[in-house]
């Protein structure tokens, strides 16, 4: 035969090939139909993996050379972030035998699809991500190890199915937003969108909190549509609300008041940033008022961690802001005054926390919060022997059953994410998870202090937010706001790569290039 030609298959071979194809399709369809009819709904998830593999192969085979659906990725990311803070996660569709289909989960799927499409179709995006990861290798080593431990601990989990489902969910809700944020937030417009989103969400939650406090219960407690009602004991406790010292504790769209307080304290640095970056007295007073409103909303939660988070936000903000002002304006008195007065003020506050009852009870604990303090001490006392008995961890979502601490009501509880991570993923998990906090805080602080770009000033609220989440996670185990942790990590990586690492590398490159000799200029002697 001539080159470039091939022999046409015989009619018999064509018939056999088509017959085998149709027999395979029919057999697979009968098998899946039999599984749907006989197996419990929970097991159907595992039979969807071949279909998922085919979808992934299709995405992988898409042609390269375009930017992919970048607009869809951006929209999906911000929609996912919005539902975290303006929509209750417990308002979800429940299909018997399946996990809740919540708005958070739906948008995480959309985010996953758009992110995979962009990664498959855009070589430029892959190169940019690889470059940013290369500039922050220690972080990605810790992140990869932490997520790998989700799967490496499956064989030692006492409930493999539960651990598997939770690990898969955390990849979608934590891991993929981390990668998306790492790519998206080197663009100034996305940084501004994020700031606006946080401030709008704060306004919505503050209004809901005030109305909820006046109502004495959740505003939608008796108005949840039937198709969004899930039959769960935890949901019933959420709808009943909680009271401390005879006062109702607001929760807004979160599962507990503690998570609302955590989010509000996380938003404080953005109000401070607006106040300190404005030269207009009216705007400054407005953002100071917003800061006070946030304090009032935190007080309505009756959560000490909110007060602690607010204090951490103000402390870190003033420390870094004063240091940069001192570095930028050496003869200015405000920067040195704040920086030099900071140790004295911090010492005075620590003294007040230890010896002034009113300050002690609102921060460290005491009074009506004594039971929470005692239970947390007991939990840490129970935690250490179980950690050292198995320093490799007990598997995802196993911390509650492993610790086996019960409230007087009989409910199993864990009151510290330090305990949760340690029991789930062991000593290595603790080092990686909390190591990411220290590393990204250092990157955010460095980006803010070394860059003169206006957009890089948003690294200051990022540094404050990371510090807040670190301290709050020591005394809070609920996972409502954990996606925010990984989003802030990704934002910090993106901003550092653009505003700190890239200018530094360009400066080194410029220094390495010898100056050109102008016409008529003498060459230096060798």
UniProtKB/TrEMBL annotation:
The chain crosses the membrane at residues 20-39, 45-63, 70-87, 99-119, 139-162, 168-185, 194-211, 253-272, 284-300, 306-323, 335-356, 425-444, 456-476, 482-501. The keyword Lipid metabolism does not apply. The keyword Transmembrane applies. Keywords: Ligase, Membrane, Transmembrane, Transmembrane helix. GO terms for molecular function: ligase activity. It is a multi-pass membrane protein. It is found in: Membrane. It comes from the Bacteria. Residues 292-434 form the O-antigen ligase-related domain. InterPro entries: O-antigen_ligase-rel_domated (IPR007016), WaaL-like (IPR051533). This is O-antigen ligase family protein. The lineage of its organism: Bacteria, Pseudomonadati, Pseudomonadota, Alphaproteobacteria, Sphingomonadales.
